[in-house]
Design goal:
- The structure holds three protein chains of three kinds.
- By secondary structure, chain A is of the alpha/beta class.
- Chain A is built from eleven helices and 13 strands.
- Chain A folds into two domains: 35-144, Response regulator (Rossmann fold); 146-277 and 318-369, 3-Layer(aba) Sandwich (Rossmann fold).
- In chain A, strand 3, helix 4 (104-110) and strand 4 (118-122) form a beta-alpha-beta unit.
- Chain B is of the alpha/beta class.
- A six-stranded mixed beta sheet of chain B has the order 6-7-8-3-9-10, sandwiched between helices. Chain B has a six-stranded mixed beta sheet with strand order 16-19-20-13-21-22, sandwiched between helices.
- The longest helix of chain B is centred in the middle third of the chain and has 16 residues, at 195-210.
- The chains are: A alpha/beta, B alpha/beta, C mainly alpha.
């Protein structure tokens, strides 16, 4: 017994000394400019929202030789998000990228304590912060007109010739609903113009990731409801939809970023016809650039949407121009559509309380949530 | 040296950790002789035989076969040297037939006879190396030859699980002979046999000896040893004590060598007249819940104050179940059990304990003790609910410790520490003393003792016998279950013989001989017993 | 000097000391293996990563943050202790409570409805939650006691049933369900159901999840300790667990004991839920797998040497390591690696029994030798 005890002591001593000494020695706390990102629910490789933010941050930091890192809270709760942000600040990061509404409360808790740290929030609205919270100067959040992105995708899909469309959202959060309702408006406008009857199956997955249950449901959409194209609108829930599309020779529309390359690689070439993009990556790059080089800081809540019909790639909501896959709806048609929205001849409503009003050509079937 | 030794083991020493299991033991087996290896439990008998059979490697010492030194690394080496062993627990495959068991591992392959043609040659080659088709016919012939030669009648086509223990032992013997073994080791072969079967077995042993086999016979039953052996080697606690010629020694000498002091063989007990009845069992029947077989059939008997009543019989004839029925561990099908003139048939186990039953169970590890409890905790196993040891749901630690210390003191319970020592690490005898002490101290009218000396050595057995007799003196009613005839005779006031769930006879130990009892135990009824006896006289 | 020496040598011989030393060995072994894993993934940051894992809150440079996260680690330990005790009680009675997750989630339903919906006082919420999960656990107990259904199988099945019941009931009730966020509302610090801080939050940099719950769990530990050390019920449960044949020999009522053991462990699992939710730390989210804590409790119970006091330390260790493990994702270790490493450390504690068994055999041989020598001396 004594032997066991003594050897335990010795091993522990050697191990801890070794780890702590090397650990402390290899640590260098430089006071250079550093950028960190904290995730909300999913990981940075969700092929969607988080990934876009991550890629933006990573790309900009790499080009400018600035340290970049990301933190994933160990469990899904506000306290854990606060811990991750605090840890990032403690490790010397100056800018914290916070993609996702869920981080609103955490920012409100941490930001006032660290006035010298910049917080860039994405997709965080005033309602996501606690009541009576007064925004401090070091917070700046950006929201997008998702309804416009959804509108573009829905309009393009019907113009392309699809008549049976589907929508599978993540959880019914404001952004997700805006995408969906914009999508319906776009579908309806295009159907009215073409005087064609279209059907829309509208459902939420109840989570931001795919699994066997979601896959089964989507499979049924393709098989039983004869849906031709489904708008996958919720983080990595696309995995289930892409799989079902591949198995049923169907099509899908991506969200947040241009998902075509990933889906081409992981599932099947060509099933993702377009994506309702938010310029998340663009926002991150632009804002870091402004802050670092021009010292511009737009504190408060900012809305981002369409800015140009001539150079549509500069818009913060858009369809991907690279590798344009639509045949009947051309880039010219797309540019014309943007112009029409910008000059007000086409109106996209951002109301999320009521279902969008549709013409007699469009039949929407609201199915609630899968889970 | 005129005589050649079949096997010599010289100066064999074997250590397990710090325990010296064998300390310079010499064993010399003469060709064509029977050597008895005697010693108490844990004396190191099995260890030395395991070394001979290649299961262990000795730390020191040499083994010689016919004067030539040999190395036995594993049982295969032993087989090659024609050494065979019948273990205490048979190594047979239950679901195989007797013949299959015999030829298993030493299969006679099908082979075409001398001067085969080309195809037959090819077949011989392929069969030897690839197909390995067994020549059952040839094997059966060989086995039958052995059976005839040694007069070992068994049914070759029955499955092993369907034949009796005695038959299984014969199968083991045939197995060794089939492998042309010259040196045969028997590890406690008679432990599982009835008196009658033992006699048959000893005859077989003599027969084997006459055919030139050399035999090592491990036993601590001196009657048998003296009946068949030529020499006796005694070991004690791993030490080599002596080797004696059987014809030149006495049982008393050997047994005192075994235990290191003289042992009284029959406990002297004073005469007593039994008084009022304590336990009355009437028409007790019990059905085994799994096999739906009636394991106890219409059993009636009583036990009175101041007497020891013994349920004798071969293991598995319903004695255990009778006890389970009385203590409540098994549901009774019909009948009644009266304790002190009160019917306890419908009471729970706890209520029966409270009504006045002390029970020394057969299996101390299964029922009698919690091995991972200390001596203290075990000492209150069936009385923790009594007022002395608990109140308002709380245990009274002080009283428990006091009581435990009393037990340790009074019953000489030895362990490596105090009463907090875990029972698991203690020797069997000391474990048994805890149970016996606990049950005797409960001071109930009825004491049930099931095989109270199972697996213990002579010294411990003696002590336990004394304790039981003392209870008899104190006017307790004692119901004993025993498989050992020596014990049955030395303790009982009345002997009830059980066979297949029924009581087939009641005897006074002074008026019955071992042979008769053995016949009853093996199922021969009184009339048949008489018939057999008459035959013998003829 | 010799006095100290003898004191230590007797201490080392004690069964408890053995358990502690084996547990420490297991923990250390786990840490070393975890470190090797980190070395393998990213040698440059491995040492600092391990320092972070071991340091947890100590890594923060700001003393307030340190206090805050020390408090959080402690507060998260409390429910794990409760769950470990739940496993422990059943284990002592010879049952393997793998249904802790299910019992936990049944309690969550009660807590969410009483806490969010009805705003009941915290102790009432807690007690009703414990009763609910107790009744749920007794399903397993009854199946075992009356029909001899293996408790592991029924426990696993009831885990899934409870999971879907909880998901279903909570997510369809808008009073308690925050549907835009797909989770139940969290009990706020101003709610009646919030377990009061009794000023403890002030000690930990105003961390509101620290509170009375931590003291409560220590009281429960003492109660369980006394149960097994001093009471007849504890004696019966232990006997049933160690040797159920001996228990029936001694006339103990097996049915009663199985029901009582499962009832106690169910109530403890409910307490775990209460301690986790009623401090405003988290709430129920839709989940497709039974909650982790039910399984972590198993490791913690074993690492704690199946002793109520030991469980305090093992639970703290496990929470400490998991918390620390979540702090290395920025050092080139993906969250997956971090969780593999922490699970490696945690589940390695299963080795406790293996090593203990080896030690025990060694010990028995010694004792046996001693006993044999003793006999010889006497003869």
């Amino acid at each position: 017994m004594k032997k066991f005890f003594v050897s335990l002591l010795a091993t522990a001593l050697v191990f801890f000394t070794l780890v702590f000494t090397i650990g402390t020695l290899t640590r260098n706390k430089a006071d250079e400019f550093r950028v960190a990102m904290v995730t909300d629910f999913t990981d940075v490789n969700d092929g969607s929202f988080n990934q876009a933010c991550y890629e933006g941050g990573k790309e900009w930091c790499k080009n400018n030789h600035i340290p970049f890192n990301y933190y994933k809270p160990s469990s899904i709760s506000v306290a854990e998000r606060i811990k991750s942000i605090t840890l990032a600040i403690d490790r010397g990061y100056d800018v914290i990228l916070c993609p996702g509404y869920a981080l609103g409360e955490a920012i409100a808790e941490v930001a006032p304590k660290h006035p010298d740290v910049y917080f860039i929030g994405l997709d965080i609205t005033a309602e996501d912060f606690p009541e009576h919270f007064i925004m401090t100067d070091n917070i700046c959040v950006f929201n997008y007109h998702e309804e416009v992105a959804g509108y573009l995708a829905g309009y393009a899909a019907v113009k392309e010739g699809f008549t049976r469309l589907g929508y599978v959202g993540g959880m019914p959060a404001a952004q997700v609903i805006r995408f969906g309702y914009g999508y319906i408006q776009g579908i309806d406008d295009a159907a009215e113009e073409l005087k064609k009857n279209v059907d829309v199956e509208y459902v939420y997955g109840g989570q931001f990731f795919g699994d066997s249950e979601i896959h089964k449901y989507v499979d049924n959409l393709y098989k039983v409801d004869k849906t031709e194209v489904i708008f996958s609108c919720g983080g990595s829930i696309y995995t289930s939809i892409a799989l079902a599309a591949k198995e049923n020779n169907g099509y899908m529309i991506g969200v947040d970023s241009d998902q075509a390359p990933i889906i081409d690689r992981d599932y099947k070439e060509g099933i993702c016809i377009t994506s309702a993009m938010k310029g998340i990556k663009q926002t991150v790059i632009d804002k870091l650039e402004e802050l670092y080089f021009q010292h511009i800081w737009k504190k408060g809540i900012n809305d981002l949407g369409l800015v140009s019909s001539e150079e549509p790639e500069k818009n913060y909501v858009q369809l991907p121009l690279e590798n344009w896959r639509l045949k009947n709806f051309t880039i010219e048609d797309y540019k014309k559509l943007i112009e029409e929205i910008m000059n007000g001849s086409k109106i996209v409503v951002d109301d999320i309380e009521n279902h969008p009003v549709v013409s007699q050509y469009t039949k929407v079937n609201y199915r609630g949530s899968i889970k | 040296m005129s005589e050649t030794y079949a096997i010599e083991m010289l100066g064999i020493t074997k250590k397990f950790g710090n325990i010296l299991a064998n300390d310079h033991i010499d064993i010399r087996l003469k060709k064509g002789h029977i050597l008895a290896l005697c010693g108490e439990n844990d004396a190191g008998k099995s260890t030395i035989m395991s070394i001979l059979f290649g299961l262990f490697q000795p730390d020191e010492g040499v083994i010689k076969k016919e004067g030539v030194e040999v190395k036995i690394q594993n049982p295969n080496d032993a087989t090659k040297l024609n050494i065979g062993m019948v273990h205490q627990h048979f190594k047979l495959v239950d679901s195989f037939s007797v013949l299959q068991n015999i030829i298993l591992g030493d299969e006679t392959l099908k082979e075409y006879p001398d001067k085969p043609n080309v195809f037959q040659k090819a077949f011989n080659f392929l069969n030897k190396h690839i197909f390995k088709i067994i020549d059952v016919k040839k094997a059966r012939e060989e086995v039958n030859k052995i059976i005839e030669q040694y007069d070992l009648q068994v049914d070759l086509d029955k499955k092993v699980k369907d034949i009796s223990v005695e038959m299984q032992q014969k199968v083991e013997i045939i197995k060794m002979l089939y492998r042309h073994n010259e040196i045969l080791i028997f590890d406690e072969p008679t432990a599982v046999l009835t008196e009658q079967e033992i006699q048959d077995f000893l005859t077989v042993l003599t027969h084997l000896k006459e055919e030139g086999k050399s035999i090592i016979f491990i036993s601590h039953k001196l009657n048998e040893v003296f009946q068949v052996s030529d020499e006796i080697t005694v070991i004690r606690k791993g030490l080599y004590i002596d080797t004696l010629k059987t014809s030149e020694t006495t049982k008393e000498e050997v047994s005192s060598l075994m235990v290191g002091r003289k042992v009284e063989f029959i406990s002297e007990k004073e005469k007593k007249t039994p008084q009022e009845e304590v336990l009355r069992v009437e028409h007790l029947s019990i059905m085994d819940p799994s096999s739906k077989k009636k394991v106890v059939n219409d059993v009636s008997f009583n036990v009175r104050k101041g007497e020891i009543v013994t349920l004798a019989g071969i293991d598995g004839n319903g004695q255990q179940e009778v006890i389970y029925g009385i203590t409540g561990l098994m549901k009774m099908q019909s009948g009644s059990i009266m304790l002190d003139r009160k019917d306890i048939s419908t009471l729970s186990i706890r209520e029966r304990i409270k009504a006045g039953i002390s029970h020394i169970p057969e299996d101390r590890h299964k029922h009698g003790l919690v091995l991972d409890y200390s001596i203290y905790e075990n000492s209150i196993l069936d009385r923790y609910f009594e007022k002395d040891y608990s109140q308002h749901l709380l245990l009274k630690d002080k009283n428990i410790t006091k009581y435990g210390d009393e037990l340790i003191e009074k019953y000489d319970i030895r362990s490596s520490g105090d009463g907090n020592t875990l029972v698991r690490g203690m020797s069997g005898g000391n474990q048994q003393k805890i149970i016996i002490g606990r049950e005797i101290e409960r001071n109930q009218d009825l004491l049930i003792a099931v095989q109270p000396t199972r697996g213990l050595d002579i010294g411990a057995i003696e002590g336990i016998h004394e304790l039981l007799l003392k209870q008899r003196e104190n006017d307790k009613a004692i119901l004993l279950v025993s498989l050992e005839l020596d014990q049955v005779f030395s303790l009982s006031d009345r002997i009830l013989v059980m066979y297949e769930g029924e009581i087939v006879g009641e005897f006074d130990p002074h008026e019955v001989d071992r042979e008769t009892l053995g016949l009853y135990m093996s199922g021969a009824r009184k009339d048949q017993v008489n018939a057999i006896k008459e035959n013998k006289h003829d | 000097m010799t006095k100290i020496k003898t004191f230590f040598s007797t201490l080392l011989k004690k069964e408890g000391t053995k358990t502690v030393i084996t547990s420490l060995w297991c923990a250390l072994l786990g840490l070393i293996l975890g470190f090797l894993l980190l070395l393998f993934i990213n040698a440059k940051e491995a040492a600092y990563g391990m320092t972070s894992v071991l340091g947890n809150y100590l890594i923060f440079s700001n003393p307030q943050d340190r206090l805050n996260y020390f408090g959080q680690t402690l507060a998260k330990t409390a429910p794990l202790i409760a769950m470990s005790l739940s496993i422990l009680v059943c284990y002592k009675a010879g049952l393997f409570n793998i249904g802790g997750s299910g019992q936990y989630s049944i309690a969550v339903i009660v807590i969410t409805f009483l806490g969010i919906g009805a705003n009941m006082p915290w102790y009432l919420t807690m007690i009703v939650a414990m009763i609910a999960s107790m009744l749920w656990a007794m399903i397993t107990g009854a199946l075992k006691a009356f029909f001899n259904v293996n408790e592991v199988i029924s426990g696993i099945m009831l885990n899934w049933i409870a999971l879907y019941i909880t998901n279903g009931i909570l997510s369809t009730n808008s009073i308690v369900w925050d549907s835009p966020h797909s989770e139940a509302f969290t009990i706020s610090t101003t709610s009646n159901s919030y377990i009061p801080s009794i000023g403890l939050d002030k000690l930990f940099a105003n961390n509101s999840i620290v509170g009375l719950g931590m003291i409560l769990i220590l009281v429960v530990v003492v109660i369980i300790f006394i149960l097994f050390k001093k009471t007849t019920l504890g004696y019966e449960l232990k006997t049933t667990g160690l040797n159920s044949d001996a228990a029936s020999y001694a006339g103990m009522n097996k049915v009663k004991n199985v029901l009582i053991a499962t009832a106690i462990s169910g109530a403890l699992a409910g307490l775990a839920a209460s301690l986790n939710l009623q401090n405003g730390f988290t709430s129920w989210r839709l989940s497709s797998t039974p909650v982790d804590i039910g399984f972590q409790g198993i490791s913690s119970a074993f690492l704690g040497g199946l002793h109520p006091i030991g469980v305090i330390f093992s639970s703290y260790f496990i929470v400490h390591i998991s918390e620390g493990g979540s702090m290395i994702t920025d050092l080139g270790f993906s969250p997956e690696v971090a969780s593999i490493m922490t699970s490696l450390i945690i589940y390695l504690s299963g080795f406790v029994f293996f090593i203990k068994e080896l030690l025990r055999r060694h010990e028995i041989k010694l004792e046996f030798a001693k006993a044999t020598r003793g006999k010889e001396g006497q003869a």
